[in-house]
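S.,

As promised, the iron/sulfur cluster run. Input:
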Amino acid sequence: MQTNHVGEFRTEYNPNWCPGCGNFGVLRSIDLAFQELGLKNEQIVVVSGIGCNGRFPHSLRAYGFHTLHGRVLPIAEGINIACPEISVVGIAGDGDAFAIGGGHVPHAARRNPDIAYIVLDNGIYGQTKGQPSPTTAIGFKTKVTPQGNQEDPLNISRLALAYGVSFLARGFPGDTNHLAHLIAEGMRHRGFALIHVLSPCPTYHDTWKEYRSKIVKIGSEHDPADSTAAMKLIEEQQRIPIGILFKQNRPTLVERLGSTREKLEFKQLISTFR
Ligand code: SF4
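Predicted complex:
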């Protein structure tokens, strides 16, 4: 890393997250990742949706876009097409990204826009006071499921790999330096990088203890080009391996649009998407 001045990319805004929320570690990791990449504030745009994580753009000294629920990816893709020279970071929770916004993920994966998409998976709808989300464990009791959640959870890493993202990592805010490295690698990657963050919500779904007992770092023996090996790591039950699971180089959305984009004026390009 170039420097270790935590707070270089922080604004004065203090998000009103609950004490112990995993979001604090993610915010610190993003700050460290931006420093590791040596980017200037105006070279980054952060896009968030709705939920506790919607406050990230307010907390980071960069361009920001706090958009609608589930619409991080369409906004982020538009920014990437219009301004491919800027680093685009999308941030969404498990409900934002895989319930209301779930339909956008496979299409982002096949288009391969140059976006780092950080999905904070806390297995609950935190901001609305603890209803089950698409990743809530079966049997988990909430106020609206006093008998226990009766639906099987989605596995975000499994889905992202199956959809064909060109970069997939899984991280944990209990190790901010490691998570910062994963976010920086996702931003370095040319294409759609999904960083699945196991982020505890101690108020409604406290997974700190479980994650600390199960999480292990992926070793150097893993080949990130091997999607079958990546899926085996994702399917492990007794341990939760974190690190870079999968990485593949293929043309990005802007590279594919290449000649079209060069021939058209920006306004004409936008009109083709209407
Ligand atoms: Fe964090 Fe959960 Fe509180 Fe939201 S409700 S700020 S996710 S601890």
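The chain has one domain: 22-271. Residues 22-37 form the longest helix (16 residues).

- D.
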